[in-house]
Design a protein that fits this description.
- The complex is a heterodimer.
- Chain A is of the alpha+beta class.
- Chain A contains two helices and eight strands, in the order αβββββαβββ.
- In chain A, a hairpin with a 4-residue loop joins strand 6 and strand 7.
- Chain B is built from nine helices and 19 strands.
- The chains are: A alpha+beta, B alpha+beta.
- The interface between A and B is large, with 37 and 45 residues.
């Protein structure tokens, strides 16, 4: 009798663990891989959430330069020596439909294709 | 007993296996995309269907050709040469002629709210070179003397631009290009594609599964979207002062959409204007012109003309949409409580 209870206990425990793991798997967002491209060529592919400490990446273009900052699981262009500063003003990458773009330096930071995409485009 | 337990465990395993994701049950058809830096903007094109990469390559080639014709800074471009032709007639190519005639016709229709000859004033503000400055009133007045689309003569492919005047197709070129790219797609049997020319959206057909494209409309108050539009086979173009601006020494914010009457940033109560319609070039031209007009005149223009719909975002954070968008428009996120008025004819 004790033996039966033991096996029922194990089965129940496995069932609860299984349900918990399944719920966690279903709720976990798609990988937030970020791709950094220049002239369409992939320079970096990274997951900002993996960075425990803030990190900076410098990317040159001719005589120009962009500094990319990864901190607190987010990514942005913190400095650019182009005159318009549009990419810096854009702040952190937020949406798969709105990449961070530095036009003068042909630099794009965008989510990878595995990122959950709820929009197909952005007018603005 | 062991047998009973084995059956129970086996059933549990089956249950848990069923909880797994089934992402590839309905795989997307082949998706090809291409990114292009051209026309001083970032262009992305995505098409669906096997072997469509060559179509995107053709589209990119066309974009580069048009850029080389219409650049206002490239000395070899037709627009540059027209601007520096000393007031003599200048013969342009067919696409340039079409573009100029279209811009002039939209200037006429909008009674000069769209002004293709405003370029010298825009340049004086430094918006064309990102060297922003606030010109003196005297300088603006002097430059405005050479701003008047009515003085441009266009007959067939011959354009006569009076000496001292300059044209810039910036307010229509991206929309015009979007139309041409969509045309290339359709000629090559692409039934489903989306093109973004620096935020000018052009859709071809529906999404590959037949559903509508979901287009975010950028908030003029931030980098996020305030609304989502669900559309098919159309263009969506937004103009707003937030897209290119600078702060003067006195703290005043100056933006790039100039009122041709004053030569200064248009301040007529709107933060952004989104135009939805079949033709990208019309949407592009109207998004600028209606921004200049302001709410009242923009709504009146819509009532008197057909073929497009509007989303107006006012400086009091009120939204006005026209009736054609009623079932396609939804506010999202923190903007969900903004007051929305539906304008009817």
């Amino acid at each position: 009798m004790k033996n039966i209870k033991f096996w029922y206990g194990i089965a129940g425990l496995l069932f609860i663990i299984g349900i918990a793991v399944s719920v966690w798997m279903l709720q976990k967002p798609d990988s937030s891989t970020v791709v950094i491209l220049q002239d369409g060529k992939v320079l970096y592919q990274l997951c900002p959430e993996d960075y425990k400490e803030p990190e900076m990446i410098e990317i040159g273009y001719g005589s120009g330069k962009n500094t990319i900052l990864i901190e607190d699981g987010k990514i942005c262009i913190s400095h650019a020596d182009c005159p318009d500063q549009t990419c810096v003003k854009m702040g952190y990458l937020q949406s798969s439909s709105l990449p961070i773009v530095c036009l003068p330096h042909h630099l794009v930071i965008q989510y990878g294709s595995s990122h959950a995409q709820t929009l197909d485009g952005m007018a603005g | 007993m062991i047998k009973r337990m084995s059956v129970i465990l086996f059933c549990l395993c089956l249950c848990l296996c069923g909880c797994g994701r089934q992402e590839d049950e309905n795989p997307e058809p082949d998706e090809v995309s291409r990114e292009v830096f051209a026309m001083n903007t970032y262009i992305t094109m995505t098409a669906y269907g096997t072997g469509k990469d060559s179509v995107l390559a053709s589209a990119e080639k066309r974009i580069r050709e048009l850029e080389s014709l219409w650049s206002v800074t490239d000395e070899k471009s037709e627009i540059y040469q027209l601007n520096h032709n000393g007031g003599s007639p200048f013969t342009v190519s067919e696409p340039t002629s079409e573009l100029i005639q279209f811009a002039l016709s939209m200037a006429e229709k909008t009674e000069g709210a769209l002004e293709p000859t405003i370029y010298p004033v825009l340049a004086a503000w430094g918006f064309t070179t990102d060297t922003h400055r606030v010109p003196e009133q005297k300088e603006i007045s002097r430059l405005l003397e050479n701003v008047d689309y009515k003085r441009v003569r266009a007959q067939n492919r011959e354009i006569l631009l009076p000496d001292g005047m300059q044209m810039d197709m910036g307010a229509v070129a991206k929309g015009f290009t979007g139309d041409l790219v969509a045309e290339i797609m359709k000629e090559n049997k692409v039934d489903s594609a989306i093109i973004s020319l620096g935020g000018n959206i052009q859709t071809v057909g529906t999404k590959p599964d037949g559903s509508l494209w979901r287009i975010g409309v950028q908030s003029p108050r931030g980098e996020d979207n305030f609304a989502v539009l669900e559309v098919a086979e159309c263009a969506v173009v937004t103009s707003g002062g937030y897209q290119n601006y600078f702060e003067g020494e006195d703290g005043t914010v100056y933006h790039h959409i100039l009122d041709p009457q004053t030569g200064e940033s248009a301040r007529n109560g709107l933060l952004s204007v989104t135009v939805v319609g079949k033709e990208g070039k019309v949407c592009d031209a109207l998004s600028t012109a209606l921004f200049v007009m302001g709410e009242e005149k923009a709504v009146r223009y819509w009532q008197e003309n057909s073929g497009f719909d509007l989303i107006l975002y006012t400086d009091e954070d009120k939204i006005i949409i026209t009736e054609g968008l009623e079932d396609k428009f939804n506010l999202i996120g923190e903007y969900g409580n903004l007051p929305v008025t539906v304008q009817r004819r």
